[in-house]
Amino acid sequence: MGKKTNSPPASSSAADSSTDAVIEKLNAYITELESKNASLSNTVTTLETETSFLHALIDNIPIAMFAKNARDSFRISVWNKAAEEIFEVPKAVVLGKTTHDLWPKEQADLFLADDQRVANEQRLIDIAIEESVTKSRGTMLLHTKKVPIINHKDQKTDFLLGICEDITAQQLAKSRDESRSKVLSLISMGASLAQILETIVEDVEKTHPTILCCILLLNTDGTHLLVGAAPSLPIAYVNAIHGAAIGPNAASCGTAVALKKRIIVSDTQTDPLWQEYRQLAADARIGSCWSEPIFNSSGNILGTFAMSHQGIYTPTQHDIDTIVASAQLAAIAIERAQAEERLRESEERHRLLFSKSKDALVTSDPETLGSFSSANQAALALFGAEKESDFLILSPMDVSPTYQPDGRLSSEKAMAMVHEAMAHGSHFFEWTHKRLNGEEFPCNIQLTLLTIAGRQVIQATIRDITRDKQAELALQQQIRQLTLTQEALSLSEERF
Where are the beta strands (DSSP E) in 287-434? Predict the structure, then answer.
């Protein structure tokens, strides 16, 4: 008999087959997990790269940006490099802190109120100008936008994104330009030097509320300084420095004139330049003072423009820009006043300014409005007169129609306009004039009451606004045509 072969039981074979199937499924599942893990790892790497890029972008963007956690007392969670520079607070100090941890309570209360409003109302707010006090640069002016970051799941505000732009330089430049225009206008109107200098000082003090200013004028001998304007300084201090001698150790102003250069004293109680004025400075609470020489167009010194602070203080670049611009503006005013003093008659002084104007300027007696007493070249060109002598035999009524567009007699209305100017110093209105060839034209007129050589004169600044009127009429016609077209279209739509 041959040997009997042992074969595995049927149940054992089935179990092996089932195990193999499970192992195969496990391997497939593991492979699938590995694939998903690799994909997830790639996704995480991509997100980390994008997050890193986003953080780098925010951190290096040249506009201050920060984020506050609206769900955690508005604690700061993002603070980029530009924010560090503007607010002069490093990121390490800021992160995790609240507004009240970092700013004075009064200022922090205002910031927090805005933050809460943005979070609750979930809308952007645009703060055109807000102040922020820094350690080294004083008060900064910021344009701030605050944006809510809303959670799409529960529709609540997660974060508040802040974007701040330092607009200090722009705002100060704007203020300086406005002040310059005001001062030049005062100069052209013949205002007194005292009024002009006081205006310059007051305008600077408005834009730099912690600083007091004064303008000192060099006397005719060139040895002493006289107070030209110091509206906010203590009267005892003003009286004491009036007539102070110049010299290489004569406080800030006397030294600036003697050395013909800017002098900065950050502490009047320790600087040797203020040794003789130390008690005076302490009594007047002048802790620091910097002075800018005022030069005329020939390079001769006229005086100084000084800025002072109650405490120990070093002027910022904005302060320096302001004092330089103010000294230059004061120079214009002082030099003009000195030029006027050298003129023998006020009439000659008026004609000097008068003849250089690009606007048409004429003068006449405000009581009678008789023949013109003077007219510049722009006025002769405006009315079509070849010679001044031919024009000066005419009166304002000779170059006006009998009636104005409102139906009033030109003679009657003209006297009414003059009375307004005499009552208020100046008056602005529209008028219809006519050229010597009879052509009528609309114009704007600024009447200004002046005193020349002790007598009152009315000066008229005349500007032809024909083109403005034509443009206005054309616009009205376009609007009228558009309205008619729209009405026609509406009618057509109703019919069809």
Answer: 288-295, 301-309, 360-364, 374-375, 426-434
The tokens describing 313, both together, are 């203080």
Q: Is 291 exposed, middle or buried (0-12, 13-18, 19+ CB in 10 A)?
A: buried
Separation of alpha carbons 176 and 403, rounded Å:
44
**Is residue 139 a contact partner of residue 210, using CB atoms and an 8 Å limit?**
yes
Is 450 or 441 the better-scoring residue by pLDDT? 441
- CB-based contact 167:142 (threshold 8 Å): yes
Residue-by-residue DSSP string for 411-451:
HHHHHHHHHHHHHHSEEEEEEEEE-TTS-EEEEEEEEEEEE
pTM for the full predicted model? 0.53
- Single out the residue of 71, 43, 58 nearest to residue 151, CA to CA: 71
pLDDT score for 1: 46
Backbone angles phi, psi at 83, to 5 degrees: -65, -40
Tell me which amino acid residue 227 is.
V
Q: What is the pLDDT of residues 197-213, one digit of tens each?
A: 999 999 999 988 889 99
Please choose, from the candidates 238, 178, 195, the residue with its C-alpha nearest in 3D space to the C-alpha of residue 213: 238
Banded pLDDT at 100 (limits 50, 70, 90)? very high
Paired with 214 in beta bridges are 306
**Token duo for residue 138:** 């004083």
**HSE-CB for 3 with a 13 A CA cutoff:** 3
Q: What are phi and psi of 261, to 5 degrees?
A: -155, 160
Share of the chain above pLDDT 90, in %: 58
Whether residue 51 is predicted with pLDDT greater than 80 in this model: the reply is no
Return d(Cα 267, Cα 285) in angstroms, integer: 11
Residue type, 149: I
Residue pair 134/140 in contact by the 8 Å Cβ criterion: yes
- Cα 83 from chain centroid? 21
**What's at 226, amino acid-wise?**
L
What span, in angstroms and rounded, lies between the C-alpha atoms of 142 and 86? 9
CA atoms within 13 A on the CB side of 292: 22
- Name which of 308-322, 331-345, 409-423 the model is least confident about: 331-345
- Is the distance from CB of 98 to CB of 91 less than 8 angstroms? no
